[in-house]
Amino acid sequence: MTNSNDIPLAARPIDRAAHRRCDGGWLETAFQRDDVLIVMMRNGDPFVSSEGGLVWMGPEVEKISPGSPRLFLGEDTSGAPVFAVNLPSKFDVENSLVAGVGDFIEFRAAAARMSDLDANCASTARSLFLWHASHGFCAKCGSQTALVEAGWKRECPACGTEHFPRTDPVAIMLAVKGDKCLVGRQANWPAGFVSCLAGFCEPGETIEQAAAREILEEAGIRCDPALAEYIACQPWPFPSSLMVGLILEAETEEITVDDKELESAEWISREDLRKMLAGTHERFFCPPKTAIAHHLLKEWAERTD
């Protein structure tokens, strides 16, 4: 059975140790400890080795990019503090102290090669740094805000308004009917790539209602939100969403595609889906294992009912 604790980017998280975030003295000392673990990010991408895992730095990171913004991510199982630093957009690896050690790799590609702990830390850092990049000014009075609480909050010195990192709930859902499931594709996806449908939850609706609404809007298929089955969820740092996976029993079969949202949608059999997951389907291939869509499809494909 699919479990959120085993979903990539969410699996095996470190202890966030939130009680440390307001202790400036402890944080400064922790950043200089011999056992500190520091991940470097640039433009939302992690610094990884040629073998694929994160390159974990120590206090020497200050020599690489002095004064770069930092986040306290938490503590690992040994109690070692874990931080992330955000290097400048134009930071040049080849002319730095880490030349030849690794490189900044596009997050999706990097995440597929990481351990669970690495992926969770990099995902958290990506979401937070991207949030900071777009929330430099107060939404209430327009004044410049300051990073506080080890990167988990911004505060406006002018009006005192506190700003917290946002997470956007997204329903990602698989409509099923009998031995068939509904898959769709967007026009900018690679040829043959199909996936579950998905959409943001709007104000005033539940995640189940959002799922049923999106299926109806995008593909014309009607489902009862009261019968939606929750499967698992996944933090998805593009830039900061929580993907909530659901399976819904379809009440109708005729597809009417909204071409502003999808290029196409169609029903495929469970056997076709199993071939897709195995990489042997003659027409289609499915999302990688790093995406919750893969696990949602796999959950239903492996059922025998």
From TrEMBL:
| A Pfam family reported for this protein in Swiss-Prot or TrEMBL | Zn_ribbon_NUD
**Domain of life per record:** Bacteria
Spell out the PROSITE patterns in the cross-references: NUDIX (PS51462), NUDIX_BOX (PS00893)
Tell me the cofactors it needs: Zn(2+); Mg(2+)
The chain's coiled-coil residues are: none
Q: What enzyme category does the UniProt record give?
A: hydrolase
Domain Nudix hydrolase as annotated: residue spans? 165-291
Molecular-function GO term, any one: NADH pyrophosphatase activity
Q: Please identify the protein, giving its name as recorded.
A: NAD(+) diphosphatase
**Organism in which the protein naturally occurs:** Hyphomonas beringensis
